[in-house]
């Protein structure tokens, strides 16, 4: 099993190219199931989750052709990939494939819409809470699907096709919004989704579906209206920049000090996180095609945050922000409202000398002047990278075990950090 070894203490200086967003790439790839034509995705990040989804789509009959490994010499490691689901050869998504990744469950929407049936294993993904699928089921039932759950599989049927309907989400769900959006594009008549997720990845999916011929309005607001069409065509779409990767490296710079241009990204994707970061004393300067993050000395100031659906502070940056707060000059409070079990990084950060106490969904972080390197264990994707951030500022050597979590969502992390002066290496095996 690979490990990441970090020797802390160096500031970060230079340029970090931001990759295409994992959480946009996954639903976009799944949208290829909606058409027998080719969907071409540019700026697709090269990640373990993307590869896993390619295996899942391949099982349904999607032909996948990688065009180029790098689009530009100076860019991230983006690829352009063609996805063609000429025929769907299997409407079952088996446990062996789906259990590894939450988003793989989302194939249920397009399969049901196009084929009138889908049998999908209950999903896996980061172990950050119970993560039920009740909203997916209820939403699809509002489009006329008949759904049963047996032996760990969700069996959804709509032999005469889905029918447009109105669904008010009792709770905001990104994944269920993606699925309702995809399913409704081919339903008969109009669908209205209320209390929809407003995340930029939902807007990216909607834009791609519109390019494929779907009739969608309101994506990015709480009410999305979809007028069903008989079929969708292919399209060419560029995956939006990864706002979580952007925020992660911004926090790393705020932690170590230095001056880094985060390239191919936009401050409009993560305003609340950047606002919190600027309150810690980091300078955030939007530039043409990127964001400059700078901190030259001075204390890291303590800042309280509460996670919320977009446009609130993203839960996927909570662990990284906590990593930063471990070195703040004072006490901060971090409240997690999205997932009930997303504090597994707390005990690992403690190995580096962090002082954090937990009470319900709130962590109280008492900043310390020094962290000291130690062996730590990655427990989930964003928790792992919070340990990297802490390790970059810790005295001495930190070894992060179970790096496969990191590889799910961070493209060439060690290379991007090393290029900015960090001492980070992968130890294979
Ligand atoms: C691949 C991807 O894009 N993953 C992101 C997506 O996950 P994901 O789409 O799984 O997260 P959701 O927005 O659905 O989850 C939000 C909350 O709703 C609950 N819920 C969800 C569905 C359901 O049927 N019933 C239910 O109760 C969840 O347990 C959670 O408490 O959005 C999360 C919230 O921004 C991010 O942390 C994940 O990185
Ligand atoms: C929680 C995440 O991923 P997933 O939903 O796939 O578990 C994440 O990207 O932080």
- Biggest beta sheet summary: 4 strands, mixed
Total number of helices: 14
Structural class: alpha/beta
Small-molecule binders? uridine-diphosphate-N-acetylglucosamine, phosphoenolpyruvate
Q: Point out poorly predicted stretches.
A: 72-76
- Report the sheet-strand fraction: 25-35%
Strand order of the largest sheet: 22-23-1-24
Number of strands: 24
Task: Report on the architecture of this protein.
- With 429 residues, the protein is an alpha/beta fold.
- The protein has 2 domains: 200 residues, Enolpyruvate transferase domain (UDP-n-acetylglucosamine1-carboxyvinyl-transferase, Chain, Alpha-beta prism); 207 residues, Enolpyruvate transferase domain (UDP-n-acetylglucosamine1-carboxyvinyl-transferase, Chain, Alpha-beta prism).
- It is built from 14 helices and 24 strands.
- The chain has a 4-stranded mixed sheet with strand order 22-23-1-24. A 4-stranded mixed sheet has the order 2-15-17-16, with helices on one face.
- Strand 16 and strand 17 form a beta hairpin.
- Helix 1 runs parallel beside helix 7, helix 8 packs parallel to helix 10 and helix 8 runs parallel beside helix 12.
- The longest helix is centred in the middle third of the chain and has 14 residues.
- About 1% of the residues have low confidence.
- The protein binds uridine-diphosphate-N-acetylglucosamine (UD1) and phosphoenolpyruvate (PEP).
- Uridine-diphosphate-N-acetylglucosamine binds next to helix 1, helix 5 and helix 6.
